[in-house]
Amino acid sequence: MTIARALDGVTVLDATQILAGPFASMHLSDMGANIIKVEKPGGGDDTRRIGPPFINGESAAFLQLNRNKRSIVLDLRADKGKEAFKRLAEKSDILMENGRPGAMDRLGLGYADISAIKPEIIYCSISGFGLSGPYASRPGFDLIAQGMSGQMAINGDVGGPPLKVGVPIADLNAGMFALHAVEAAYISRLRTGKGQHVESSLLEAGLAYTVWETAFFFATGEVPPRIGSTHRLIAPYQSFATKDGHMNVGAANQNNWVRLANAIGREDLLEDSRFDSNALRLENVTALREQLDATFQTKTTAEWLPILDEAGTPAGPIFEMDEVWANEQVQARDMDVITEHPVAGPVHNIGIAVKMHGTPGQITSGAPTLGQHTDEILEFAGYDANEIEELKASGVAGPEAGAK
User: Which residues are catalytic?
Assistant: First the structure.
């Protein structure tokens, strides 16, 4: 039985590459959208060459980001390539691009050009710094955005150097904001019939996640310091050393603090005036950590976790990636999904993180090979068999596009 998905029937013309855009369109594809991935001549999406690791010559990064999509290679510098792109745009609900601001305009494929032929199009642009402002023309990368958004300055140990967040958080968050914007714009179009231009940027996406730190700065005028794994507003809420490693403990309110102290046999801490309230625990967080570290180091993580769980104190292990994917909760939530790829073979995918019980998302196919769906996509655009062969022979379309 075919299961209806929330975005069945929605077509997305996806001219993005690398991470932010493909991450957004991947989530749209999981919910049923028809993703037409337009790739450039000379190798396609740059992510195809990012690695190692490679799986039978295919980039593991590309395979992870481009499931459920169809690929066509089009030379957008050629007039016939632009024409094909416009014909595809006419049949699409959403168009996504992440070129440097102005690049699509120079090709004659910017929002003004596309909306002239498809007024109801939702046109999404993802860039480093946004489409306006003095930095609009600058190239954008996750590392640069993390630094300029304040994320690196607040990440790291006390007194240590600034650190990049381990995952490309600005890139990923720019993709999620783009996803949010196009879905909101699509709902608006259903009500009004009008399309619009939406955008997200890596800088603003990184900045949007500095919620606590920005609140601290606006309230005090002080620059928030690096605080390691502790929390800026709650104590204790951090990682602690155990006999064999580390674990996280979050006593997020007074009741949790009392349960924690009782569970670990440190009722004396409840009598210590330095730790009477959350505000005082924050003020004396170094002394608090010393006290708790000394206690937690008397047992292993595996010994402590059931004690804390029984007491109702939020706590958890700090997993390496192999432990993450072996975890029973991760497995129970269908977060490891295997797809088949014609070259790489079986490929593990991160499953769908949001569960929709009426119209559940699905991972139905692996990432496409370069230009794999050229013929069927051009047929979708209205080209007949002879026209398709002519476009391919001229080097405008197909895996060898741009070769002539």
Answer: 171
